[in-house]
């Protein structure tokens, strides 16, 4: 499907009152299973590989591999098994070793429908973040990458962390905005430090409103922090205006894997035999 066809489908879905659900896929079986569950959108990026290897998602922000090379490797595993769901590539927009317009064309040519800005320096704060901005590796490069992807007619679904970023991404042509509430809580390798759900409601709304002040037609999903399970997402959607869905990574693949394998193992351990 083309970018316009995907957006038309999503807008029709929203008009019918059906939320858009997106999910991260770190493996082919995750993507295949999520599609079987009728997921609307898939995103693959380096943290998915690390997450499904039992490491925290923030490993994707550290020097454990070439993020943009990893997503191209993962494409070979995921894209062939996905039949009808748009798949986005997580692109490290601050990568100084990529000629970004050329890389984005490769992303499009291999079969991705669009991009998301991950890894993102938006998850980094403090002096380290200030130094990244000062030395030419700041969030503005991610905005530039989204603008370039939009010009290539790729779907763009960026993470944003404050109101200025939300406006900047809307100006750059973002199609689907994802206010990011931080590392997802819950599970064996989830965060402990996070916003409350009520704080997330307030922040998600503020970021979405900022983006819609630039582009009233932008689609907005919620993600991260305390929004970990379907009940959490429902809580946010019930208390916000214009948030039309949820994007989950750990929530879609890590939690079900952790609990499903554990429960199945416990059931096998409970079987008996006759002496």
From TrEMBL:
SUPFAM superfamilies, per database record: Phosphoenolpyruvate/pyruvate domain
PANTHER family: UPF0261 DOMAIN PROTEIN (AFU_ORTHOLOGUE AFUA_1G10120) (PTHR31862)
One example GO MF annotation: catalytic activity
TM segment ranges: none
All residue ranges annotated as the TIM-barrel domain in the record: 5-271
Domain of life the protein comes from: Bacteria
Pfam families, A to Z: PEP_hydrolase (PF09370)
Designated name of the protein: TIM-barrel signal transduction protein
């Amino acid at each position: 499907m083309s970018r316009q066809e995907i957006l038309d489908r999503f807008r029709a879905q929203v008009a019918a009152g059906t939320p858009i659900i997106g999910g991260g896929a770190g493996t082919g079986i995750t993507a295949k299973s999520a599609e079987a569950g009728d997921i609307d959108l898939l995103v693959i990026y380096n943290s998915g590989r690390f997450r499904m290897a039992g490491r925290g998602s923030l490993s994707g922000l550290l020097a454990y591999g070439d993020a943009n090379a990893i997503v191209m490797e993962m494409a070979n595993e995921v894209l062939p098994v996905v039949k009808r769901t748009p798949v986005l590539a997580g692109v490290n927009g601050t990568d100084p070793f990529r000629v970004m317009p050329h890389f984005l064309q490769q992303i499009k040519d291999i079969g991705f429908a669009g991009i998301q800005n991950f890894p993102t320096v938006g998850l980094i704060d403090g002096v380290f973040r200030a130094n990244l901005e000062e030395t030419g590796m700041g969030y503005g490069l991610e905005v530039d990458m989204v603008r370039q992807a939009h010009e290539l007619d790729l779907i763009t679904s960026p993470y944003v962390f404050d109101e200025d970023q939300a406006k900047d991404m809307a100006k750059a042509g973002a199609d689907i905005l994802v206010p990011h509430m931080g590392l997802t809580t819950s599970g064996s390798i989830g965060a402990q430090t996070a916003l409350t759900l009520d704080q997330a409601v307030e922040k998600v709304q503020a970021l979405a409103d900022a983006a819609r002040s630039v582009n009233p037609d932008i689609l907005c999903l919620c993600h991260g922090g305390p929004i970990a399970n379907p009940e959490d997402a429902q809580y946010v959607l019930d208390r916000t205006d214009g948030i039309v869905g949820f994007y989950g990574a750990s929530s879609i693949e890590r939690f079900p894997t952790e609990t499903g394998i554990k429960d199945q193992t416990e059931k096998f351990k409970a079987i008996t035999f006759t002496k």
